[in-house]
Design brief:
heterodimer; A: alpha/beta; Rossmann fold; six-stranded mixed sheet; 13 helices; 40% helix; disordered C terminus; B: mainly alpha; 11 helices; 73% helix
Chain lengths: 272, 295
């Protein structure tokens, strides 16, 4: 994607050269710049420990709970700088982060999980409508709405975690590894549902995934992060066709040689 | 043994036990939100009693006015403790929060000693000391009143935890990070649990202050309250009620059997044995939740 294309669509989120420190010493991301255009789905790809989750936590403000902070750079949400805004206020502004590992409220029922996430100001009728909307998207949850969330299957818990986030009425939904530990057919089901919500409600989505194959099927563009830096940014189509990405993240083509591609990240550092 | 006398021991034991429950409910409220047994609950209970006395005796308010005002003051104090002492510890190891509550208990004891001295003062609730006869069984009126208050609190919290605010508090107890991620203010939730525990502390302070006088010894209720809370499961209000009754009965009946044999003082031993055995045999107590393991 050329630079002109990016400036045409107004970004709902823009992150500019953000650097994150944990415990004042550990540099987790080293100047990450990404943009999520309004109503689009964007993927952040990369291997374990590359800085994908840290990037999401910087945006949602959950960094603070892990003794991290943004030491440089700026994050703007709908044009407003949010770097100093408390996490709970960012949720009010419309950013919701589905954290890694599902983390449903295990001792609450799915119904109560949804109620817990609803703002106290939401009236009873609106809350019921909201619950119906979520159960409509994820009918499996409706069947188990009164059993403890801790006893749901992994896929159901992931659906609940996403549903719980949707109750907060986000404009930007961030998902951290929703496919982790799930059977492929469930991953497809969940990604299809996210795509559907994106299409029907214009929800912008920032998706962090190690499962690049599944992610690139649903997003419009993707960033590749390595060692705390963005090393590649392109449309999903172009990324799928890129031979380096194929080799490293999509399982590789038959007969391809590792040695030929291992220096690709140094070549493609132009975006960081 | 005379069955009527045994029944009397059991009933009065159960009533006393419910008074331990009243104290233990405060511990449970804080444990639910912070996963920490609040070692300052005894101090809070004592302060609650002193605040009521200060308003009633020193300011001269009638008790029906002094108690609600004390409840409001103590709610504010509990909320303030989170703001001043606990907020900066969010995310730190639980043992540090435990130590803060211990420090707080010492602080509250020292402050009350400095302000009101060590002399025991009486609460004078106006409940008659004439025992009540249920058939042939003698029952203490103030214990009956206290047990009623404990059951009312139990019912009120049972309902509260079904409300939207209560569900948010339970969510906080489950997972801080997930709560933050959906915009729940964990800090305010913990503050609320401290506020509510302080309100319970006022009621426990008033009832126990009436029974044994208001002095430093009120803070020692922590030991029995903690035993009840652990036996009940630390995070279960129902557990606190049931365990209170059990401990009260075991203690009262058991002491009657054991005291002649050991020459007195077996009550404390029974409480200690219950605490130690619970932790050894059933660490999550009677109704405490285990962590869910899916198959």
């Amino acid at each position: 994607m050329s630079m002109e294309d990016q400036t045409v669509a107004e970004p709902i989120l823009s992150m500019n050269s953000v650097e994150v420190l944990y415990d004042n010493v550990l540099l987790a991301i080293k100047g990450v710049s990404i943009e999520v255009p309004k109503g689009k789905m964007v993927a952040l790809l990369g291997s374990n420990g590359a800085g994908k989750s840290t990037t999401l936590k910087a945006i949602s403000g959950l960094l603070k709970a892990e003794r991290g902070h943004i030491s440089r750079g700026e994050i703007r949400f709908r044009g407003t700088a949010i770097t100093e805004v408390l996490a709970q206020n960012r949720v009010e502004m419309g950013i919701c982060h589905v954290i890694e590992g599902r983390r449903v409220f295990e001792h609450l029922t799915p119904d109560e999980n949804l109620i817990a996430a609803a703002p106290l100001g939401m009236n009873r009728a609106a809350l019921n409508a909201e619950k119906d909307r979520i159960y409509n998207y994820f009918p499996r949850l409706a069947e188990r709405r009164n059993s403890l969330a801790g006893y749901l299957s992994g896929g159901e818990q992931q659906m609940l975690a996403i549903g719980r986030a949707l109750v907060t009425q986000p404009d930007l939904l961030m998902l951290d590894e929703p496919s982790l530990g799930l059977a492929p057919f469930l991953v497809a089901e969940i990604f299809d549902m996210i795509k559907k919500i994106n299409r029907e409600e214009g929800l912008s989505v920032l998706l962090v995934e190690q499962n690049a194959l599944a992610a690139l099927e649903v997003v419009s563009d993707g960033y590749l992060i390595e060692n705390g830096r963005v090393v590649m940014h392109d449309t999903a189509e172009a990324l799928k066709a890129n031979s380096d990405i194929q080799d490293f993240y999509l399982g590789g083509k038959e007969g391809s040689n590792f040695h030929n591609v291992k220096h690709y990240s140094r070549r493609k550092r132009w975006l960081s | 043994m005379d069955p009527v006398f045994l029944a009397e021991l059991a009933i009065n034991g159960a009533l006393t036990g419910l008074l331990y429950s009243l104290f233990a409910i405060g511990l449970v409220l804080i444990y639910k939100a912070s996963s920490v047994p609040n070692l300052a609950q005894g101090g809070l209970t004592m302060v609650g009693a002193y605040v009521v006395l200060a308003l009633a005796r020193d300011v001269g308010m009638p008790l029906w006015l002094a108690i609600p005002i004390a409840v409001a003051i103590m709610f504010g104090l509990g909320f303030g403790i989170e703001r001043v002492a606990l907020r900066r510890l969010a995310g730190r190891p639980v043992v540090m929060i435990l130590m803060i509550t211990l420090g707080l208990d010492i602080f509250l004891r020292g402050t009350t000693l400095a302000v009101w001295g060590g002399t025991s003062r009486s609460m004078e609730l106006g409940v008659s000391y004439e025992p009540l006869f249920l058939g042939d069984i003698l029952v203490s009126r103030i214990h009956l009143v206290g047990a009623f208050v404990a059951v009312m609190f139990f019912a009120a919290f049972l309902l509260f935890f079904r409300t939207r605010l209560g569900i948010k508090l339970r969510a906080i107890a489950d997972d801080y990070m997930a709560s933050w991620s959906v915009g729940i203010s964990v800090e305010r939730g913990i503050g609320l649990s401290w506020g509510l525990a302080s309100v319970v502390a006022v009621s426990a302070g008033v009832i126990w202050g009436e029974i044994q006088g208001v002095d430093q010894a009120l803070s020692l209720l922590l030991l029995k309250g903690l035993t009840v809370a652990v036996l009940g499961g630390l995070d279960s209000i129902l557990g606190a009620i049931v365990a209170g009754i059990i401990l009260g009965v075991v203690e009262n009946v058991g002491a009657d059997f054991l005291d002649p044999l050991v020459g007195g003082g077996s009550r404390e031993l029974i409480v200690a044995a219950v605490l130690i055995l619970t932790i050894m045999i059933r660490p999550h107590g009677l109704f405490g939740r285990h962590d869910i393991e899916r198959v």
